[in-house]
Amino acid sequence: MARTPSNMLPLGTKAPDFNLLDTVSHNTLSLDGLKGEKGTVIMFICNHCPFVIHVNPMIVKLAKEYQKKGIAFVAISSNDVENYPQDAPHVMTEKAKEEGYTFPYLYDETQEVAKAYDAACTPDFYLFDADMALVYRGQLDDSRPGNGVPLTGQDLERAIESVLKNEKVSENQKPSLGCNIKWKNS
Question: What is the pTM of this model?
Answer without folding.
Answer: 0.96
